[in-house]
């Protein structure tokens, strides 16, 4: 469809705000059942209309609830209101000292901890010989910890990018020019290394799958094969970070055998990225010739803030991201930082010295030229006007604030960067064990291959291979469950009372691809085909999330009704949400969000607005089931019960795993904002000793016995450094023991 306009005059904006649509049941699209409670029926709001009375009553109820919680919780944990039920922007997060557990005892404490994650390089076996410790298979003998070699294996170069030198690639796209780290074009971006095989007994993911997404699961990475090329393991005098030199390092020299130890002291990553794009500009120019395909450019936007405490591990993480995504791809990706300036009084647009001072105090010099500064005052100017009242505002924060509307600066960034078609929204406390290009490229390809048929229903459910079987079986299961519930799958835009139409809809345009319509053969557009399995196949996704996209209504998620700008006399609009803001958004989705914001003054909580807008307007939204590990050997039926406990055996509605009473189940996962396991495993992999989280009462983070570290890894009975398969971990709040 045609690109939506980006700008419009103020007079046009004001006149268009009254534009709404009245749909009947005969129109194309989807009607969702109205929420159980209509806003017209709720008169308590009027009774509590006085701000002072409402606050007194709400705070009284909060204090009473807190008292009951402290009294009945075994550990006496307290609510962490700043972290309750969401993956908030980094600067608003506070370390939780309690748990929203809701149950005593926690059922998962009864399960035995898994040991296979901590077997090292000397236990590597080919994937064909691998016997995972978990999930448990009846009749299969567990693998024993056996040292397969007295010598450490040797890693090999790992290149997940296409073969740019192949005849096939060059016949389809313009040739890729080599990109360099230094201005003199002497130092090309380095190779990443991996080990063939995996440690014997390494548990398989409980949720999701690498192989399903096209990510290799037959290799593993140790800390030096992953980060050695970016400065880990050698001194600052040699141009490294001086990090990792206090850990076991036998055999690590292999990763520098080809390039030597690269001197990163004077690198300007923004300049290197720009030079890479310039040298490869023919690949992205749609007018460069019809004989070659244009390569679509993708931005990776990392949200950071003034006051973030940088460390060497964070630096090497983002060096890896720039090198693997941008320089090694010939400029297909470009990495940016969105730097939140919290002091609205600073003249960040008027004075270059102020801007430079902020950069000097907030960012490593090597990343300065990648930064875009923004402030909440800027968002108030950009999205000014009459904002209506929110259905609920549990945080009490402004709609223009990063707490509730972290998508605002991303929307603005997209409007000012027309060179990009897709935007990865990323956070500072996420790490990836593996190659970033392989992750982002495979997620995009897999999402493109997904049919829209029952896509919303599939995306609302955690994929658990040991329970659901292969993906084909999982897909059929979702179809059958939907039919048994007497529901129609969501295939296009949804219509509801009070819905407004964006400009594209006023022009009778649709975001649905041609594959979703049946043609009568007379040249007319045809009608939507609800049962078309080809609908949406080969269509790039407008939204890719890394957690299920759930129905927020009655889900128990604290911010489910943080909805602003819609008519409060109507039922609350249908919402979808994906916890953890990491996601890929298309330009057209961000343009829809931008128009809904400036024109209609609509917004929802940060993790809800993108998915809800995709739902309302019929854009393609996909949850990509990447591998999520568990620290304990759960019964697989229990995994399905607790992670798909909502309606239709999904994550939606009552029983959702995102209800704050149920979120404790994520404590032992590798990917969720309240995870304890992610940080423990990450630091053990980095080579630092950690409390193993085991104890007589089941064990929790910070409990148990000190394990790992240099002494243990160097001991004669050690199996060597940890070697883990490609996986995302979140949150990583600190990395070295003395940083915590």
From TrEMBL:
Q: Where is this region: Disordered?
A: 1-30, 696-716
* Membrane spanning stretches: 52-72
Pfam short name (any one): DUF3405
Regions of compositional bias (Basic and acidic residues) in chain numbering: 1-11
The answer, when asked if Lyase is one of the entry's keywords, is: no
Keyword Transmembrane helix (UniProt): yes
Q: Which residues form a coiled coil?
A: none
Q: What keywords are annotated for this sequence in UniProt? A: Membrane, Transmembrane, Transmembrane helix
Mark out the compositionally biased spans (Low complexity): 12-26
PANTHER family cross-referenced by the UniProt entry: CHROMOSOME 19, WHOLE GENOME SHOTGUN SEQUENCE, MAJOR FACILITATOR SUPERFAMILY TRANSPORTER
What is the protein name given in its UniProt record?
Answer: Major facilitator superfamily transporter
Q: Which organism is it from?
A: Pyricularia oryzae (strain 70-15 / ATCC MYA-4617 / FGSC 8958) (Rice blast fungus)
> Lineage in the entry?
Eukaryota, Fungi, Dikarya, Ascomycota, Pezizomycotina
